[in-house]
Each structure stands twice: as structure tokens, then as C-alpha cells.
Amino acid sequence: MKASKRTKWIEIEYWDCGIDSHTHRTEAVASACIEKQEKRSPLPDKKTRYKRQVYAARRVLEGDTFTKVGKDLGISGGRVSQIFDKTMRMARHPSRLDVDTIPEGNYWELKHLRENKEFWLRQIQKMADLWGV
Ligand SMILES: [Zn+2]
Fold first, then answer.
1. Cα of 120 to ligand 1 centre, how many Å?
2. Which long-range contacts (CB under 8 A, 24 or more apart) does 34-38 make?
3. Are residues 69 and 24 in the same domain?
4. pLDDT tens readout for residues 39-61
């Protein structure tokens, strides 16, 4: 027998919550997902997000806790941590980073970032200028 290429169609049954990438196994989970989506507040506009990123990054680099910054922004400390991580990831991007001037050490650690805050605050300023915030 000679090998032949075939196509087999399979059917997948799932509960839809309105998000393309979601395939829920039960109606209850899909309903809970929809409920969760409805409760979620919409993402603020880009300018507001950029301002929040710059503000959060500066405050955390200055030594404030995620919780304290979150209280002032009306969001959770965990969310501030996410925003801070994203902002620092962007600040470390090679397109914005002068490789020869990076301070020695592990720049993925908060301790390192705070010890070299002048450098990282300049990086944040570069982004603030770029974004116009
Ligand atoms: Zn869903």
C-alpha cells in the first residue's frame, strides 16, 4: 500500500463566552466568564496608561511599596507590580538602552534597580519624552 495524505475533520464542542480564544467545557464556567468580563472595568486610554506607567515606575524606584502606589492610583498593589514590570521591561529594551552605561549587576532585581535609580529614572524619562507624558 502506498502512503496517502488525508484530512480528518474533528468536531469540538464547547461553551462560548464571546472571546475567540476561550473554549469553556461547561455552561457554568462560560457564564462565570461572561459575568467576570462584565464586571471588569474598561482599559483606560493610551495616554492615561502611559502616564500611569511612568508615575508607578518613578514611585517604585524611589522606594515606595506597590501597595502604597496602588492606593494612590486606585488600583491593587499586584496591578502596580504588573505595570512596573512591564514598564521596566520596556525601559530595558535595547532600542532605549545604552548598553555601555548599564550599571553592573542583575537589572531584573528590584534591589538593583533601586540601588541604581538615577540610571533607571533617566530611562523612564526617555520613555516619558517618547510618549509625550
Ligand atoms: Zn471565557
1. 38
2. none
3. no
4. 988 888 999 999 999 999 999 99
